[in-house]
Design brief:
By secondary structure, the chain is α/β, with parallel strands linked by helices. Helices cover 37% and strands 15% of the residues.
Amino acid sequence: MVVNSTEHTANQRYIVGITGASGSIYGIRLTEVLLSLGYTVHLVISNAGWRVLKEEMDWEASSREEMLEQYFSTWSAQLVYHSFADIGATIASGSFRVKAMIIVPCSMGTLANIAGGMSANLMTRAADVVLKEERKLVIVPRETPLQAIHLENMLKLARMGVSIVPAMPAFYYRPKTLDDTVDFMVGKVLDILDIEHQLFERWGNGREKF
């Protein structure tokens, strides 16, 4: 666990979950931005999520806490890392208040478990707690194509008030790099959380005039 010496109040705390779906950079970038804005982030990464981080970002999963300390060194005092198996972590309890939880990217397996009320690990338990305490849950699914069960699970959660934000970057702002497309998705999540940012250019500035 990365020790947090400047823990904030509930309105300053966010849970970020990273699963084994492709697109782990979305979760890492969101964590980075939240930390840079002064928030505390409680981070949970599934075992499959660590595997994807190794495949997509060359992170060495055998030294997990060291990797986090290194990558988020500027804001390490605001980061709390929880083991995926630690069902007794603070975020597993409703008495520990947070502003919201974001699972990005969210695998279809994790989404199905949340929709079915299954909480066998810290990721799904924390999501279950957020739902029962009527706090904000944002899910960024990353899968294609989608089959009927995937869609039904998303609809079930959406009807419960969960924000479903598929990883579908736009192109109207003319992204020039991969970082631009990542920032667009992270910015859309921040919009849902009502957090001000300047990660992408919004529609306007005369571009709507053809």
